[in-house]
Design goal:
This protein has 143 residues and is mainly alpha-helical. It contains three helices and three strands. Helix 1 packs antiparallel against helix 2.
Length: 143
Amino acid sequence: FIITNMANQQQAQKAAELQAQYQQMQQGLQQTYQKIAELEAEVHEHTVVADALKKVEGTRKCFRKIGGVLVERTVQEVLPAIEQNKKQIEQVIKSLTSQLEKKSKEIQGFRTKYGISNAGDKGSSSSGEGENSSKNTSSGVLV
């Protein structure tokens, strides 16, 4: 009786460890989704600002926030920097999307290997997006 009780305890402990590991993997996946959503909002913000700046003269003054300091520049100086930043953010999004696909496959393999059900999962792509819109209130450029 004691041996079977110890075996049951070990199985329960292993199951708890596997569940904790699975939850960590899910949290990592959720964080990646949230970061992608945040960066997509930044790309949209950059697009809006770039479109606005394209409609004005290149010699017109504009202000750009750099490291918490508002700096006066001209549109022709700021516009290329905004477009470059947008391209870099888009590259990061591609990289994160690739990581997301790898993590998803890894989690699916983990589920299959250990027979973990999908019933406890939350909607992974929709949570957290409302919070991100309130975080990104500063565009960094004033026209």
